[in-house]
Design a protein that fits this description.
29% of the residues lie in helices and 25% in strands. It starts with 24 loop residues before the first strand and ends in a 9-residue tail after the last helix. Its main location: cytoplasm.
């Protein structure tokens, strides 16, 4: 369904001019209501728990992870692996978030509050999953927030080798349309794993300059 705009947030985020130029963390506080989260993404921020704060932290990395839609690296072995999977969209959002939130994963940060918040946004049509299935079983996937031409990837998981990569390939194919040159596929930070797939760092100021144009674009066809 087309996304439903929630009530506006009661909170105000700091203006860009006051953001620290030596820290990815911009603010702590507010809430995880749908309107608050969407306002944050539209400003170039995203929430993650901040240990010991009892409230979400709001982050804008000095070096933002961005995957150019023409920069995705699909190796020969990955291309072969892709044949094993069926890619589906928005058929198992709750299961994908649960897979990403598995407490057994190293570096897990998706707590119950975050999980509930993104499920609420999914019900409103703002959060989407791209899933890798094999033999009618979910074996990997990713989820993120789609606002216009921005897709802000939140997390990915796999239960079979290359399943999460297959979901990423599926996402990139979905975003490759007549507006592809100005869409932004945001991965927050760059990990070694993401770097092998073509994700590169973009300075915060460059990301914030690109963001308004991306937000003004129409959603990709499946989510309009």
């Amino acid at each position: 369904m087309p996304p439903v705009e929630p009530p506006r947030t009661a909170w105000s985020f700091p203006p860009v001019e006051s953001w620290p130029d030596d820290d990815d963390l911009v603010a702590i506080g507010a809430d995880l209501a749908p309107g608050t989260i969407l306002d944050a993404y539209r400003r170039g921020l995203f929430p993650m728990p901040f240990e010991g704060a009892g409230a979400p932290g709001w982050w804008s990395p000095l070096e933002r992870g961005v995957l150019g839609l023409d920069a995705l690296r699909v190796t020969r072995s990955l291309r072969t692996s892709l044949k094993r999977f069926e890619i589906r969209v928005d058929t198992a959002l709750a299961e994908v978030i649960a897979g990403c939130a598995d407490p057994g994963r190293p570096g897990g940060w998706i707590d119950d509050d975050v999980r509930a918040a993104y499920l609420r946004l999914g019900q409103l049509g703002w959060v989407h999953s791209v899933e890798a299935w094999r033999d009618d079983e979910l074996v990997g996937g990713l989820y993120g927030v789609a606002i216009g031409g921005l897709f802000a990837g939140e997390s990915m998981f796999h239960r079979e080798r290359d399943a999460s990569k297959a979901a990423l390939v599926g996402l990139v194919e979905l975003l490759r349309d007549e507006h592809a040159d100005h869409r932004v596929l945001d991965t927050q930070w760059v990990t070694d794993h993401l770097a092998t797939l073509g994700v590169r760092e973009v300075p915060r100021e460059d990301y914030l300059e690109r963001l308004p144009r991306a937000l003004d674009l129409p959603l990709p066809a499946p989510w309009r």
